[in-house]
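Render Tryptophan synthase alpha chain in 3D.
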Amino acid sequence: MSRIRAAFSRLNGGKALIPYITAGDPCPDTTLQLMHALAAAGADIIELGVPFSDPMADGPVIQRAAERALAQGVSLQTVLGIVRRFRESNADTPVVLMGYLNPVHKTGYAAFAQAAAEAGVDGVLTVDSPIETIAPLHAELQQHGIDTIFLVAPTTGEERIAEIAQLAGGFVYYVSLKGVTGSAALDTADVAAKLAVLRRHISLPIGVGFGISDAASAKRVAETADAVIVGSRIVREIEANPGREAEAAGALVKELKAAVEAV
């Protein structure tokens, strides 16, 4: 059983919390501390952003985080090194890499998949890899036991949802808003309606992200989703607390986890 499947299985019908942080922000050593703090605070899966120079799907908060990481020379190889160090003392918490195709393509799909598997990566989400072009990467990831995570948007039609369901592994990430990460005005009624459509085709757990900024919104989303994904709010907490990033992020994740568990 994969770590992602095991994480959902351990919840026994409960809802997962998936926090996102940008690898290398504010520095690689702190990222490692953050990952351990998130796991200790109740994160069921950790989503680790791979910094990229043109993060078109990300809002200003995560863009700034990527810029800080890139200014220190953080690369895809650096990120895999952080995961490898995390695995030295945490063998259970799944890690999903989230980023853009360019660094993976530059590395080579086969080489990347092998290195990611050896580091202990469980899933990969490349936001700019549609189903029409992802076959070569998907095949390599599948060969190394790594789940391919797909995004589904509010505008995604049922035919395309069914196609995504044929390739997806681990869980499916529903983007609850049109726009970039950190957007506001989350409509949980709309989310619930869309999830009902998704479940006609998708048997995997469905996580919801974008627009979840506090315990109250996390709880509302958890009422219908299988997992709650929180990114910009956590990255903003890291940015606002220099020197105590792990403590601040851990406290926020503990609060979010309590809200999700209350459903």
